[in-house]
Amino acid sequence: MGIQRRAPGVDAATDRFERLFRRHHGAVVAYVRRRAPAEAVDDVVGETFLVAWRRLDDVPVQELPWLLAVARNVLATQRRGAGRRRALALRLGSVTGFGAAESEASFSVDGVDGRLLAALAMLSEKDREALTLTAWDGLDPHEAAVVLGESSGSFRVRLHRARKRLRRLLDEHPPLAPPRSEQHRLRVEENHS
Fold first, then answer.
1. Could you state, in order of their start, the residue ranges of all structural domains in the chain?
2. Distances in whole angstroms, Cα of residue 7 to Cα of each of 11, 14, 18, 109
3. In CATH, what is the architecture of 109-193?
4. Are 182 and 175 in contact (CB under 8 A)?
5. Which end of the chain is more exposed for a tag (fewer CB within 10 A), N or C?
6. What residues contact residue 47 under an 8 Å CB cut-off, 6+ apart?
7. Total-model pTM
8. Following DSSP, what letter does each residue of 76-116 receive, concatenated?
9. Where does 8-107 sit in CATH, by number?
10. What confidence category does residue 108 fall into, taking pLDDT thresholds of 50, 70 and 90?
């Protein structure tokens, strides 16, 4: 019995995919976690890398923006599917007489100020996407433009306007004062210093 060998191209493709996966898996997971309910993250990430494997020859030099664009498309497909399932459940509920209420999945980003999250929620989806791609996902404007499928120039304009709108929202909603007990503790600490 001889040793089974893979074709040389298969070895090269497998190696390239493994390097791609190791380099960018964490960034793709972080991107998806901020945009999907926890129970959907593994599926979206898995589907993203499945597309990358199938289209390995199409992956450009700037791999991460391409992968995030794929993840964005997978998320959009899943949302459309969830919307269709929700509509079907509502129709079935009205036909059968049973309520089929399904609450929207909620998720938060650990360690992020609630005021910032609230302000982000008030922005349009396009503004939110521009801000989070650059601030949270660490992409430069050119890379973020690739993810969204638009020119660098139009993305820079969008990002500038989104930042202005976010700043205005944050200025309109100043941080809440600490609770009275916290204010008292702070005064006591100041007096003892």
1. 8-107, 109-193
2. 7, 11, 17, 44
3. Orthogonal Bundle (1.10)
4. no
5. N
6. 74
7. 0.58
8. HHHHHHHHHHHHHHHHHHHHHS-----PPP----TT--HHH
9. 1.10.1740.10
10. very low
